[in-house]
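Hi support team,

I'm opening this ticket because the web form for multi-chain structure prediction keeps timing out on my end. I have pasted the exact lines I submitted so you can reproduce it. The total is 587 residues across two entries, so I didn't expect it to be a heavy job. Is there a limit I'm missing, or should I split the entries? Thanks in advance, R.K.
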Amino acid sequence: MSDAIVLTGRTIRLTRRNLDAVLTAMLLPIMLMLVFVSFFGGAIHTGTEYVTYVVPGVMLLCAGFGSANTAVTVTHDMTGGIIDRFRSLDIGGTAILAGHVAASVLRNTVATTIVFGVAFLIGFRPVAGPLDWLAVAGILLMFILAISWLSACSGLIARSPEAAGGCTFLMMFLPYPSSAFVPIDTMPGWLHGFAEHQPVTPVIEALRGLLLDRPVGDSAWQALVWCGGILVVAAGLSGALFRRRTA
Amino acid sequence: MTHRPAVEASGLEKSYGAVKVLRGVDLSVAPGSVFALLGPNGAGKTTTVRILSTLTPPDAGRARVAGFDVITDRRRVRRVISLTGQYAAVDEMQTGEENLRMMGRLTRLGRAEARGRARELLERFDLTGAARPTVGTYSGGMRRRLDLAAGLVGHPEVIFLDEPTTGLDPRSRQAMWEVVKGLVTDGVTVFLTTQYLEEADQLADRIAVVDGGRVVAEGTSAELKERVAGQRLDLVFGDIAGYERVALRLGVRLVWSDADRLTLGVATDGSAAHVRALLDEIDPERRAVDRFSVRGATLDDVFMALTGHAAEGESGAEGERRGAEGESRGATGEKEAAGV
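Hello R.K., no limit was hit. The queue was backed up. Here is the completed structure from your submission:
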């Protein structure tokens, strides 16, 4: 446990020295939000202010961009000399990976808060109460945790940091064919099945419901099941992959 | 020595797929000594170090480090060793001091202790000026020294160094040698691998020569030199008759021969007296030998003498070419061998 804390500190220090990667990961969702709200928003009818509609999607994009960096840093460690040093000090894979994931969660929490701030500046006006906000934070945290483990998992599969960056592309693309930016019923029919049942949609729906004080229905528990499932599978797979790579 | 060996291995075997990397390695290293595993690329040096440092399990054989079995007692082995591999195990984006402090915390030192140990090591490895900048700005030599320092934070008993000076310029190599020599004064055991004869010679109390996954010779530097010689006397003959006559007479004492250039090599310590005596002995009529040169023995010579063949594969080919270019500096030859 103390190893994991030391290694989390290490990854945070490394992040601070690589600020351009963090800024890119934060500026991209902000830029996309500005583009969507000011260029496309007028043409998209969602029944509410578009900025309010789009914020949950931007949050998930932000988490995707933010955790993609974890894949790169994990691959970097695995392909460099430091992994042998850690192992010869009897530091286990769990501590090493947990360090990366914990740093990713912290980094994303800061980024998400900043993106929320920008959203407020450009007219985001949710009507959520304190309990709703707590639930929003909980769901976002679960999503970030799940996607960070998934990212660590990609980092263990990839053989080079560049390949690791590519692995995370899918995660960043996933919010587009969902209800994040446009209502699903405006998409072509063949996409409906996927868009309605992919993991991002219930997360978006739950966040949106909570922020706008609308009934969330099944989407809240669906979101938690998806995130929990991804988390368990990705963490388990990461452990197995780590053991295989270091055997 | 009455103590148990710091490192002992018997019958270590390891294959990667169809490639047999180790074919039964036996070793014994006395505590408080420097031991060098000398051999060309692909001889099995790194694999041996990985097995001894618990990172890779052997297919067969047993090994103990500081008295603990590397397989059944892995955790206790890990508590008393450190490994500095061929690839730098420090973070480029952290400063030298941060790297060392992190290692201190990971070896269960308290915050203040870790800071103190970092400062102490930076000072000892002549890196105090480099404490603040990030490692990315370091020279190759500084990075290696920091890497080695990072391995020492937890006061290991046995230190494994896998090719500590490969890729360093001569000055940094010299500095690294001084650092390694300083380690044993603390009573630790150093187990290093190298492709450089000179390095093993400078640092090691005992040397094991490995080739094709086996230890082909083991002994002190002086013992090995008796068989290999530190220098080589190359004799260029005026005609093929003289070349052949002397080649026949020298027989097994030949460590080098090149009929195309009418050149024969014999071992020498490089002293004027020895070279004069050799010349008198080989060419008493003072007619057969046209010219001579003295050069440092290379790993190829060691191999020639110990195994009866040139270091396998590309490294052998390099040896041939080097002969063709007529280079006479051992250091150049060694650098080429490293580049293979």
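A quick check on our side: Chain A touches chain B at residues 2-3, 6-7, 9-10, 13-14, 17-18, 80-82, 84-91, 246 (CB under 8 Å). Let us know if the file doesn't open in your viewer.
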